[in-house]
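Support case: iron/sulfur cluster complex. Customer-provided input:
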Amino acid sequence: MYSIHDEENLKRILLENWEKPFRYAQIENAIYKNYIKKYDEITTISKVSKTILNNNFFYSCLKLKTNITSDDWQTTKLLFETTDGKFLEAVIMRHLSWRNTLCVSSQVGCPMWCTFCATGKLGFTRNLEFYEIVEQILFASKMLYQEWKNLRNIVYMWMWEPFLNYENVKKSIEIVCSQNKLDFSNRRVTISTCWIVPWIKKFWDDFPQTSLAISLHAATDELRKSIMPCNITYPLTMLMSTLDEYVAKTNKKVFYEYIMIAWVNDSLENAKDLAWLLRWKLAHVNFIPYNEWEGDSDSEMKSTSKSRIKEFQNILFDVWIPSTIRHTMWDDIDAACGQLATREGREVGDYSRKD
Ligand code: SF4
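Agent response - structure generated as follows:
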């Protein structure tokens, strides 16, 4: 069986069964524009065509396990179970400005071991297939559509490192941005990564319009290595010079994510280091207050106070570096990346570290 999102095999099998050349377009339209739930709902194709689909293509491979919405109705966290019993998450963030955003996962767990991250504590289980990524997006689009809302932005930044699963991520972006499918603008898709320099170069060749976000979290090698072991392979000088090339080629701003952890990376010295690192760059910093997730009893990390985040931000403003503070709209639903999956994994004994 193949996924219905597997265009190559779908076209081949339709052809082998003497289906008319326009059949593919009819099926594509039903799936991506009309949001059908099963093949029998497609009114434009014959019974024989439906049998071909039922015999060769599965429509869905993710089962919604949990669906939690925050008290203010702004954030919905979706926990999916794959057919091989793994758990992955996606998060819908509704904004009053209608810029509804979906964060999708591209891996089950993450191999990067960042010390502050729930997903890192899962260890790595496997890469997601392109159709498992597309299904998260399709599910969220349908959900928002039922609320008379549109999905506006997609960010590959939940359980990940997307560049470690590049081919599947690439294929999923192609499906999402195809005019005949979900017809998303490339500009409204963002890939968030923490380090893999060679893939950043490939990415700007493949998707010059797509936005890039960097999980920075520290502005010196010493500090970054202590919380993000990945910095050992690609130190900041290498990362920043690659990003300078990226900006020169694409003329696009780079978004930098900076998690604020009390006593770890939130001193005013740290702010000055960040201002120095990003001076004169086409950059936007997104400060993310650390989410103290109850599942991690070993962690002594605490979120930085609001007043310190403001002080930190002012140091960047002084040198004309724009920034925003992410509103923590999701504390009541364990919505930091990997929290639900970590909890679920622990309960079913599914996740184990690979060491
Ligand atoms: S912060 Fe990102 S890269 Fe680091 S462990 Fe978490 S998901 Fe992986």
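The radius of gyration is 21 Å.

Case will auto-close in a few days if no follow-up is received.
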